[in-house]
Amino acid sequence: MTSRGPAFARMRGGFVGSLSGALTVAAHGIGGGMAPSQSSVVLLVLACSAVGALVSATRARRHDLLFLVGALAAGQALGHATLSVGAGAHHGLQLGPAMLAAHAVAAVVTAVLVRAGGRGCQLAVASLRSILPTPFAPVPAPALPARPVPAARRQLRRWLLVGARLGTRGPPILV
Predict the structure, then answer these.
(1) How many CB atoms lie within 10 A of CB 25?
(2) pTM of the model as a whole
(3) First to last CA, the chain
(4) Which of 69, 71, 121, 160 has the greatest number of C-beta atoms within 10 Å?
């Protein structure tokens, strides 16, 4: 499992999407926001699923940590907007300093943890590969040689089929 593999990208996208939602609710509550309603939670799940899908489809080769911080910050901003819209008009879309600080700290800490978790998974898979025996490769079965059909036999079969349609059916005549 490499950091550029599709399994790792899906795992990272799932972590970023799910943690964006969880941290949005936590930072929103720590910052003084109200508990989310059911419609807000549905919107939050949809928004965070979209963020996770975008993260799993995007590959950041050089600045992985900055990419994760940006993705988590965007996910939390989108999550904050969905919680604010769904909760009515308790504070609108404006962010207070406590809520902004809670969202920022949560994004940075989570990005570091997601990156460390990905690195830990890579090390675990590498150590398992060195310990476990390599799986047996299937032995390729020898291909059976194709038997060519003579051209005369193909013409005879066609002639028999055509000839069978012209005659009447009945028992053979003994001579």
Answers:
(1) 20
(2) 0.62
(3) 80
(4) 71
